[in-house]
Structure to design on (164 residues):
C-alpha cells in the first residue's frame, strides 16, 4: 500500500452522533371490527431513505419504514416510522459516500425502526410483527442500476429527438 493510500485510509472518519425517531404514524382504520375477522394478515413493507447535508461533514439520514397490513380487503393497520440518525462522515470518495448514505447508514437505522414498528403493532392489540432483515447493499445496488438505466434512456431519447 502506498503512503498516499495509507494517509487517505487514516483520514476516513465515520461516527454516529445520534439516533432518534423523527415521525411516527399508526392507524387502525377498521378497528374494532377487524378484531372479529379471521387473522390472515397480508403485510406490505415499503422502505425509503432521505439524506440531508447538515454541513461540516455531518449528515442526517432518515429511513422511512411503512407497513400496511390487510386482512382480506380491509386495512388492519398502517404503521409509518421515520427513524433518523445524524452521522459524521469524511474522507470517503463520492462513490463511497453514496454507498455510506444509501446503504450503510440505513442498515444501522433499520433495527431501531423495526423495534418501533413491532412495539406499535403489539400495543395496537395485534399479533407481534417481526420484520425480516433487509439487505440494504442489494437495494442500493438496485437503485444505482435504475438511475443508470434512466439516464441511458433519457440520453437515447435526447439523441432520437436531435435526429428528428
Amino acid at each position: 500500500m502506498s503512503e498516499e493510500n495509507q494517509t487517505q485510509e487514516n483520514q476516513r472518519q465515520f461516527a454516529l452522533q445520534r439516533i432518534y425517531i423523527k415521525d411516527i404514524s399508526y392507524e387502525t382504520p377498521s378497528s374494532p371490527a377487524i378484531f372479529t375477522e379471521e387473522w390472515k394478515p397480508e403485510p406490505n413493507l415499503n422502505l425509503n431513505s432521505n439524506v440531508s447535508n447538515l454541513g461540516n461533514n455531518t449528515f442526517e439520514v432518515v429511513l422511512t419504514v411503512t407497513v400496511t397490513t390487510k386482512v382480506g380487503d380491509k386495512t388492519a393497520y398502517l404503521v409509518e416510522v421515520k427513524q433518523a440518525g445524524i452521522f459524521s462522515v469524511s474522507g470517503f470518495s463520492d462513490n463511497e459516500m453514496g454507498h455510506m448514505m444509501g446503504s450503510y447508514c440505513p442498515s444501522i437505522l433499520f433495527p431501531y425502526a423495526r423495534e418501533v414498528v413491532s412495539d406499535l403493532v403489539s400495543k395496537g392489540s395485534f399479533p407481534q410483527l417481526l420484520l425480516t432483515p433487509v439487505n440494504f447493499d442489494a437495494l442500493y445496488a438496485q437503485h444505482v442500476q435504475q438511475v443508470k438505466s434512466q439516464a441511458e434512456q433519457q440520453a437515447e431519447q435526447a439523441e432520437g429527438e436531435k435526429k428528428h
Q: What stands out?
A: The radius of gyration is 21 Å. Residues 94-123 form the longest helix (30 residues). Residues 9-163 form a domain with the Bacterial Protein-export protein SecB fold (CATH 3.10.420.10). The beta strands are 13-27, 42-55, 58-71, 74-90.
